[in-house]
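Q: Entry one of two.
A:
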Amino acid sequence: MEYQIKNDRLKVVICDRGAELRSIQTPDGTEYLWQPDPEIWTGQAPNIFPYVARLTDETFTLDGTKYRMKIHGLVRYQTLAVEKKEEDSITFRLDANEETRAQYPYEFTYRITYALKDNQMKITSTVENRDTRRIFFGIGGHPGFNVPMEEGLTFEDYYLEFSAPAKPYRVGFTDNCFLTGKDELYPLEDGRRIRLRHELFDHDAIVLKHADRMVTIKSDKGSRSVKVSYPDFQYVGFWHKPYKTAPYVCVEPWSSLPSRDGIIEDFAQQADLMHVDAGKTWETTWTVEIE
């Protein structure tokens, strides 16, 4: 089922399946969110929890037991309940159930809230630990934004611009997107920009660390842009379907990284996973701003 929230600047549609965004529009009808195309990518904005990207053999261990989980976790495959709905905000909730326990053996409540203020959409995720032990997790977002955003422009007219100069490193991935452990300096134009071209993504996602935590998709030839701010996330990924002239780019805030190549990770030992103790709640907010 789909739900709509709106204010005088934005109209947003979210589906209860995965609490995934379906549309982000301004009053003039301009659509900023990628719309599914079976020839390119059928996703739009999967919510990532409790693991970011791939596990070796889709498997991890915990307390000596093996569990299997698909890419980007389990939320995207679940139907979430609407816990609260107002005109300009909505909160979805997922409680641990038989299906989640088979993949992720914890008692938890995951919530995600979409709230509009002016031309911003704030996305707040919380993880409530209802177990008797510390739980570990990865979390993130995966929204795809239409590029170009205006008629008469092309994909190559746009660039990604960080709000402050940095010297980020690109996380090293194998051809099948597992960690190599070999990260390399990723030069930015003027310390801030990545000019878009489809060939950038022929080797899958560009995942950066030590970059600024605010990035804008924009063009000097146009007036529309999308700014994504993710203050609590160590990594940011940029992606579209490899070897496609896909008219979108995903901006992906990640809290953690995928498995090392060939290693079945122990969930309690993977150093970059988040954690929350029994009876506690963890929370983060990131923001999408539409111009």
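Q: Entry two of two.
A:
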Amino acid sequence: MGQMWGPVFVGLNEDGTYQFEDQNGNGVYTAGGEDNTVLGNAQPTFTLGFGNQLSWKRFDLNVFFRGVFGHDLINANRAVYGSAATIDRYNVAVGGAFNSALAEPAVFNSTHVEKASFLRLDNTTLGYQVKLGNDTDRLLRVFVNAQNLFTITSYTGVDPEVRYTDGGGTGNAEFAVSDNVLAWGIDRRNTYLPARTFTFGVELKL
């Protein structure tokens, strides 16, 4: 489950078309079959969670980190927007994802598979307590909470989260699959950026 299968990119021909690696050693690349190989795997090797609560005088701090490591993702944005052949239809990708010499639309290959390990600060809360009068049991606590504050990853797509199903659903031919639980690890073009939220609050203990 989660195995990614396809051709290995080795360069471009003089006319700007793809050149893929000959896997079976017959000297000629043939689309599909024996000239395809394993490009990655959508299953993570391990996950972790780390939480801690600290207090100092009237301050308290709660943090929770979450990490997922060892999985790969197919970066659909890199594939579709990385070719000069589609510049008349789409905005192009930036940086190394765009290949100005590529003269044909995207064909899925090894350049579209990326390592997607990440470490994310999922939740953190900073609070401050104030005594109300001389009664130590009466407290006013103000706090600020942040979710999805930052993510550390080398993945260049929208979101490095593991994909255990493929939603598809953009209406384009290359995204015709819908809710396929057997197609793992595809970061589609309809993926939204994960929201970063902040909450301010007051707690009163009487």
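A: Comment on entry two: The two ends are 55 Å apart (CA to CA). The longest helix spans residues 76-81.
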